Amino acid sequence: MADKNTPPTKTPPERRGGWLSRFAPGVRKIVSRRDTPDGLWVKDPDTGEMLYRPDLEAALWVTPSGRHMRIGASKRLGYTFDDGDYEKISSPEVEEDPLKFSDGKPYRERLAAARKAVGTRDVMSIGYGEIDGTPAVAIVQDFAFMGGSLGMAAGEGFIAAAQAAVARQVPMVCFTAAGGARMQEGALSLMQMARTTLAVQELKAAQLPFVVVLTDPTTGGVTASYAMLGDVHLAEPGALIGFAGPRVIEATIREKLPPGFQRAEYLEQKGMVDRVVTRADLPKTLGQVLSMLMDGKRRAA
Length: 301
Description:
Number of domains: 1
CATH architecture: Alpha-Beta Complex
Mean pLDDT: 90
Strand content: 15-25%
Structural class: alpha/beta
CATH topology: 2-enoyl-CoA Hydratase, Chain A, domain 1
Low-confidence stretches: 13-21, 27-33
Order of helices and strands: HHEEHHEHEEHEHEHEHHEH
Helix content: 25-40%
CATH superfamily: 2-enoyl-CoA Hydratase, Chain A, domain 1
């Protein structure tokens, strides 16, 4: 037994910090937290597990638990077109902040912040290329840009995509993701529901397929317009799809909603969605659908 009067033995500096430091004295400095790149790990929203970012990117941002995480427009277009090769189609510019709106922060400042964070002018991005061998125009709504809200720029982008499809005589694919109309544009935003609907009618008049891929989330005025006007409606697994949110509906009807209500799988069972397709399978599925529909157009001609 050690003498009470004996001073405690100090741990030599080279032995502090655990077994790894004893075998490789410089390793702590090499792998220190401050040397780890930011964003190298991503938290799984379902399980809380930390996922290695390169592995998640290789899985097209689908987690091991099956969650299809939200992705930006450039990734979506790259995943959709063959070999990630496509031609960008620009959207017309619109007047900014015509209502001089402020909700505690001027609308112009919110637009500037969104553009800086996302790297695009507005919510819509358009590309032209081949999807599993079939030429098509694809438009992607990016939820990261002000919640994918439908405003004048989004409406003009949708119309530009439809007109490009008609001019090239190819089908159009729309990837939706939105929280609804852009409140900072008031009635001008709501007008886009009618304008985009007319653009869909132009596609139908030209006998060109219009296919919608519903991604998480697709709600509000987008669901009440072009998101539900497709010839075929596909959806990613687990996507929230509806007009009002579940909490609003429960508060209104004062009843508990069924499990999975407004999710892609539930809506597939009810006939609102034609098929739920994983992200990895979307290009091939889209190619098959577009090829079949375009073959029908050629036969009709």
